[in-house]
């Protein structure tokens, strides 16, 4: 049976790298755990790191975090849907917001629960996902400051999450300046400028991050060591926190070219044939996962001799060439993962999750 393994020591190594980096630069940070889909064993590993602040986009996952450690600060990291406002106030210490109507609902619910709910207002800086338009910002904050039960603790932005707009010094300087403008205008202190995510880390490493940015929300760098500028691994970090183990269920030498009239497969694709493959054979291994669990382009074979041929719903075919490693039925094949692939595996009930030292 296929399973996903989290290596505890690799996770701790990446955490220590990031924690030292942020502390050296006077930056608060928290771990974004939406990748783990509420898996209690994996979330326990995150809490044990001692970060003290966890971010997630599912309130049910924040509930699990509070069950593990009620003292961990929880942040709900997307504008809350109206029908879960009650649970957001109950399980999230802070939420990211962009809509006045939702903030009114949070205000009323916070008063019902006899709480002060903290909020970070997200600002649109070009990627065109969530965020208040900059021309509306002063008017927006003026109305939010009047709401009972609501404490504004920061402003922030998301970049690279939808259209791939990359952070740069100019955008982040603007973000930090908005904090100063709002503080001067309303005589209020706003402690956090949450402009940092995995994509912003390379700027920090190059000493190109404006000093006003003092809060990061990090997931992909922690779990994959990812440098989103170079599409490589951040020097000094590990890309082996998570690995997928799959089992060979068939292994045969077969023709490289399918035989018969080709139509459209169940994924709506037509196979393209390379003329140089006619008459050739290779060993093809079938493993026990498919597109139900993960898209093949999110898998990175640990063995460089392996190439991914294609997948159906429950099986994935590998080309192992002349089989120089001598693979046989029952052997396990390991893969490193891209973020979206790991997310699919975490949400699959068919993939076992394990923790290892």
TrEMBL record:
Protein name, UniProt field: Alanine/ornithine racemase family PLP-dependent enzyme
Gene3D superfamilies linked: Alanine racemase
Cofactor (UniProt): pyridoxal 5'-phosphate
SUPFAM superfamilies for this protein: PLP-binding barrel (SSF51419)
One protein family per Pfam: Ala_racemase_N
Phylogenetic placement of the source organism: Bacteria, Pseudomonadati, Balneolota, Balneolia, Balneolales
Domain of life: Bacteria
Keyword Hydrolase among UniProt keywords: no
Source species of the chain: Rhodohalobacter sulfatireducens
Keyword check for Isomerase: yes
Domain (Alanine racemase N-terminal) ranges: 11-225
Keywords: Isomerase, Pyridoxal phosphate
